[in-house]
Design brief:
single chain; 73% helix
């Protein structure tokens, strides 16, 4: 239905206006695909954070006596590992911990005689077990500190979720603006081709047949312009993705698009074409009906 016969295309094809319509649609789809990609990627990152951090705890043993500290660590690990709600429990490598602290303490602060806290990473099968695990750990080492990863990363998670909602709002806003552009283009076309439409009516054409001419023209412009805008947006996203990969940051690296997300972005020109076609049809039929 999108493809029209050559006489139909010439009938309502106003060259300069058609080119302008295609460029407008290209710009609209470019912005929409970028906003949709941001929303999909940040929403996926939010889900990944929820999945990775919801059941993870860090137990910190701060004890000046190294022997007491080591016994507490061994007792906690021995008590946690057999429990069914604990997927894994392991002490953080001391050398790795020292490397992490070196930028703040310097080499002098990592002297072997100075006490260093021990840390245990705990991975739970369910976040609901966190309270029971905390009671168990404090029963063994009352001085232990227990940090839930989801708690201290909650601001990051909230910020990413806000970005996802903002991106979704932008998609709706641009789609609404695109619909208004289609309405204006259809009304302008009706005014421009008023005489031609009257001749078509005298020849026996119905309002539905006239509306089909407009919706074909707008559908073709939307599809061609949208395809160009989508290709440019995808190229830009690939470039941004390569820059993110070079950063090597875990949090930023989680903001990626899955194959299903790319499929959604690829279908957006078709979705906008369908939306523009329906809007054009309703506008033309409504306007022609009021003139009768």
């Amino acid at each position: 239905m999108i493809a029209a016969r050559a006489p139909d295309r010439r009938l309502l094809d106003d060259g300069r206006a058609t080119r302008a319509m295609r460029w407008i649609m290209a710009i609209m789809l470019f912005l929409t695909v970028l906003a949709a990609a941001l929303g999909l990627a940040t929403w996926a990152a939010t889900r990944a954070l929820d999945s990775d951090l919801a059941g993870r705890l860090t137990v910190q043993i701060v004890e000046g006596d190294a022997a007491v500290r080591d016994r507490s660590v061994a007792a906690i690990i021995a008590a946690l590992r057999p429990r069914p709600e604990v997927r894994a429990a392991a002490e953080v490598d001391r050398a790795r911990l020292a490397q992490l602290l070196e930028p703040w303490l310097g080499e002098a602060g990592l002297d072997a005689d100075l006490p260093m806290p021990a840390m245990i990473d705990v991975d739970l099968t369910t976040p609901a077990a966190a309270a029971a695990i905390e009671r168990l750990v404090r029963g063994i080492a009352p001085q232990a500190r227990i940090d839930a990863h989801a708690q201290w990363l909650a601001p990051v998670r909230g910020f990413i979720a806000t970005l996802a909602l903002l991106a979704g709002g932008l998609v709706v806003l641009v789609a609404s603006a695109t619909t208004l552009v289609v309405l204006l283009a259809a009304r302008s076309g009706l005014d421009t081709h008023r005489d031609t439409i009257e001749v078509l009516h005298m020849l026996g054409s119905t309002d539905v047949q006239v509306a089909r001419l407009f919706q074909r023209r707008i559908a073709i412009d939307t599809l061609l312009g949208g395809a160009v805008g989508t290709l440019l947006a995808v190229a830009f996203l690939i470039f941004i993705g390569s820059q993110i990969d070079r950063l090597g940051a875990e949090i930023v690296g989680g903001v990626t698009l899955r194959p299903a997300d790319w499929a959604i972005l690829a279908m957006m020109p078709l979705g906008f074409t369908l939306m523009a076609t329906i809007a054009a049809r309703m506008t033309v039929l409504g306007a022609l009906g009021r003139r009768l």
